[in-house]
Write a structure and sequence with these properties.
Two copies of one chain form a homodimer. By secondary structure, the first copy, chain A, is mainly alpha-helical. Chain A contains eight helices and three strands, in the order αααααβαβααβ. In chain A, strands 2-1-3 form a three-stranded antiparallel β-sheet. The first copy, chain A, is elongated, with a radius of gyration of 18 Å. Chains A and B meet through strand 2 of A and loops of B. The first copy, chain A, binds a DNA duplex (18 and 18 nucleotides) through helix 4.
DNA sequence: CGGTAGGGATAGGGTTCT
DNA sequence: TAGAACCCTATCCCTACC
């Protein structure tokens, strides 16, 4: 028949990653339409992008907390989730996409938003970016990521919550609500 | 992470079907406002109802062909699983609101008074409603739908024809004279 | 603005290929 | 047995049209 399994080239994979960094996850058609990536990805469909991103994410997440999370899931049937937050039912925060180059999280220190970014802020951004949750990450996920990857003071959660509020009110994070769901705002320039 | 995909429960689906039977298709906001369904469907929007109805109709239309296709696909690796009968996945029957009794044409005591709706009548209404043919459905379409989705006795067509006549003379159906087609009467009494 | 219809995109489960 | 690539389709989103 037609195609005996078209393997992804490193160029395609790089284009996909750059596209996600620029437009965010879940914007597969947008990435495909971006002239910056369309040439490299011209033989891929939006669904292909989605599938490949899923594969990348799955393999990338072995190393963080997911292992323990899954193990816990099997051991403990009742997940005791409750909202001790203020009044938000489900808060997700996603990094604002930026148009040019940016944010190499493996060797950072070289970027700054226009607003003040503390070191905790950078950690928060790293958490959200690396978690790669399609619909954004809620506070609990962010907390867990930071607990996994850093030594944290006892009141880390409070600090993080404060910074999240700041970052989403006048920083690079966006918190938007739609049916108890949050998403990026770069689809809405005005 | 508020709701990464709200799957429809059987209760919700039943409420939607009952709502369509009561108010007609395209009356999504009306169905939602009906106190009889609003509790079950409280987490759904009118657009959700519309989308779900479309999906129900599509799967109903392709009814048996799809199953035949899948059967073919799995013909080669025949695993001798023996749970063929308590499988609820197969042919879904309209579960009107909360009738425990389920329409099986094997006992067609379709002798109705002028008001009562028999099981066969309900199946006919389901057929016409799900077929959603803009100009109504003729007998052949209705026959095919029923054959596709139910186990039918040998003289099903006769029974259906009788009920069609009854339903259109003093029931909820409207017979479109021009082409011997039938349509529901639910579309706005005025 | 609120509602509906329809097109189209995405998410997630499943399947096939290697 | 596992992982990558691909398929299926329920759900969700966007836009045009009242």
């Amino acid at each position: 028949m037609g195609a005996p399994k078209q393997k992804w080239t490193p160029e395609e994979e790089a284009a996909l990653k750059a596209g996600v960094l620029k437009h965010g996850t879940g914007k597969w058609r947008t990435i495909l339409s971006d002239p910056h990536f369309s040439s490299v990805l011209k033989s891929r469909s939006n669904v292909d992008l989605k599938d490949k991103w899923r594969n990348i994410s799955v393999t990338a997440l072995w190393g963080s907390r997911k292992k323990a999370k899954l193990a816990l899931k099997r051991a403990l049937p009742p997940p005791p989730k409750h909202d001790d937050d203020n009044n938000t039912r489900a808060l997700s925060i996603v990094p604002l996409a930026n148009d040019g180059e940016q944010t190499n999280l493996t060797s950072p220190r070289t970027h700054a938003s226009k607003k003040s970014i503390t070191s905790l802020d950078r950690i928060i951004l790293e958490a959200i970016t690396n978690l790669k949750e399609p619909r954004g990450s809620d506070r609990t996920s962010i907390f867990m990521y930071i607990e996994d990857n850093f030594k944290t003071p006892p009141n880390m959660k409070r600090h993080v919550a404060v910074r999240l509020k700041h970052l989403s009110s006048n920083g690079p994070l966006v918190k938007i609500k739609h049916k108890y769901r949050f998403s990026t705002n770069f689809t809405n320039p005005g």
